[in-house]
Amino acid sequence: MNEDQNTQDPYQGMVEGKEQEIINEVKKSGLGKATMSRFQNDTQDSDIHMGWVNMKLEQLPSSGKFYPSDAVLQIRSARVAEIRAFSTMDEGNLMDIEDNLNSIVKGCTKFKSGAKMMSYKDILEEDRIYILLSIRDLTFPEPENKLMLKGQDTNGESFDVELSTEYFDTETIPDEIEQYYDSEKRTYVIQTKSAGEVVIAPPSIGGMEEGTKFMRSRQSACITWEQSFIQIIVYLV
Question: Taking the domains of the chain in order of start, what are their residue ranges?
């Protein structure tokens, strides 16, 4: 026996022999076919991994009745830049508050109907605060970040109440108004004697933004305007 045979690792030959067996088997039978059937229940939509979460439209104050029947609304948590912009807003300026709130909705929502992407402006104004609180819940899930308000019972006693979506109480539309709802057009349709068909729905974020622009332009030009007209026009579709 020579010196090389004496110094050879006894396990090396075993490993090399097993490797050769594997190589021979692969040449003979191939590598086989991969299947993902066992993982089908574990696969998730890519949006979930990107932080997007589906919202149930029926939980919104509008119940989703004014959106397309195939509408999908997704939200994500606010990022650092969005939180910074919101924290630096002027709380004494209602216009600035509106701009910052809409900026968060714009950046943290995805709204679509089938394959068609919709705008945050298509979201109803009455749903906005619910969506904002839902975004906040995703951004600050810790219990210590709760928003607390002062409430008062019928006896005049004050108490703390959490500002949360679970405590939202929406109004029921009276039957005399609800009878005009068109489930196909997803809005209210009223047949009038003199003005023909009038289509009306709750104001959207986009409608309110246009109303705000109008008021700003009148204020800057020191021109008065009919406020009741603005209240009506933002409801018209």
Answer: 48-142, 175-233
